[in-house]
Amino acid sequence: MKARKAGWIALGALGWACVLYSASETDFKRLYDPLVREAAARHDVPAELIHAIIRAESDYDNFALSDKGAMGLMQLMPETAAQYGVRNVFDAAQNIEGGTKYLKDLMDLYDRQTDLVLAAYNAGQEAVKKYGGRIPPYQETRDYIARVKADYPKAVIHHRIIKTYDASGHVVLTNDPEFFRVKKNG
User: Is 53 inside any structural domain?
Assistant: First the structure.
């Protein structure tokens, strides 16, 4: 009787393993989407950018490990994880929260310039600093930026919404920096 019960348990575990193995990226994106959306709202970071980074970093593998020591969905280095309060890098909620906080800090540091933000996320802030605030000439970093931007079609990280007035005194809410250039020049 015990052997039969153990056999059914093993068969059930095998069934779940097959389901998880056959789960698509869309299934995993859907699984982590509530955590991504919460962190995105809390830290004013586009949710789709977070998803694009997760896809590029770990392809939604919560237990991903890089050969350089980065871990989890957003591939946090141990020092970065500690700096942002992540105690368990394989806990999806903690990893997404810590990675999003780090991403927000990079967005603030690099004035929301997408390419520099992504370069710093991939190669590190020191590498960007070493090359005078430019994208480091590493092929891996260039490929990473292209991969994230291809998955994040709104490749410009939007500026905060600003309330202003047009020439006729109507309220205008915009996040388009071009609006101000046209207004100044027009």
Answer: yes
Does one domain contain both 128 and 87?
yes
- Which residues form the catalytic set? 57
Tell me, what's the pLDDT at 27? 84
Q: What is the pTM of this model?
A: 0.71
Distances (CA, A) of 11 to 5, 6, 14, 20, 21: 10, 9, 5, 14, 15
Instruction: Establish if 165 belongs to a structural domain.
Output: yes
Question: 165 - beta bridge partners?
Answer: 171
Question: What pLDDT was estimated at residue 75?
Answer: 98
The verdict on 139 and 172 lying in the same domain is no
**Within a domain: 11:** no
Are residues 167 and 83 part of one domain?
no
Q: Are residues 144 and 171 in the same domain?
A: no
Q: What secondary structure, in 3-state letters, does 25-61 show? A: HHHHHHHHHHHHHHHHHHHCCCHHHHHHHHHHHHCCC
CA–CA separation, 183 and 35 (whole Å): 39
Distance CA 13, CA 36 (A): 29
What pLDDT was estimated at residue 158? 47
Summarised one tens digit per residue, pLDDT across range 28-63 is: 889 999 999 999 999 999 999 999 999 999 999 999
What does the pLDDT average to over 117-146?
96
Domain limits for position 61: 24-155
